[in-house]
Design goal:
Helices cover about 60% and strands about 15% of the residues. It has about 120 residues and is α/β, with parallel strands linked by helices.
């Protein structure tokens, strides 16, 4: 009786392992065939001069040194800020290649152009 239970447990684990291997192979095959340009991150800001630089540097650090390799561009849409937010964003855009600073009207056009690709 004990040998039967041991064999049942081993077979269950073996079948589970085989199922997981097959699932992983299918996922790898599916995701490598996708034709995607990457992920676009859009951040809307308004009057955030005290917080925006720290937030973006932290966010960019996590992307650069993390595992988010598929992020193509980060689009910052300014919602008509009246403080120094836009100047800070432009300074950061000069430092980081994938950072684009626009206003909300231009952001809408960027989104439309991405949808049409």
């Amino acid at each position: 009786m004990g040998e039967f239970i041991l064999n049942a447990i081993l077979w269950t684990l073996a079948l589970y392992g085989a199922f997981e291997i097959i699932k992983t192979i299918i996922n790898i095959y599916t995701y490598t065939n996708l034709k995607s340009d990457g992920i676009y991150v859009i951040i809307a800001v308004k009057n955030q001069e005290n917080k925006i630089e720290g937030f973006l540097r932290n966010f960019l650090f996590r992307i650069i040194y993390g595992k988010e390799e598929s992020i193509k561009d980060i689009i910052i849409a300014d919602l008509d800020s009246t403080d120094e937010t836009v100047e800070i964003l432009n300074k950061l855009a000069n430092d980081y290649e994938g950072l684009k600073v626009t206003n909300w009207r231009e952001c809408k056009e960027v989104i439309e152009s991405i949808k049409n690709v």
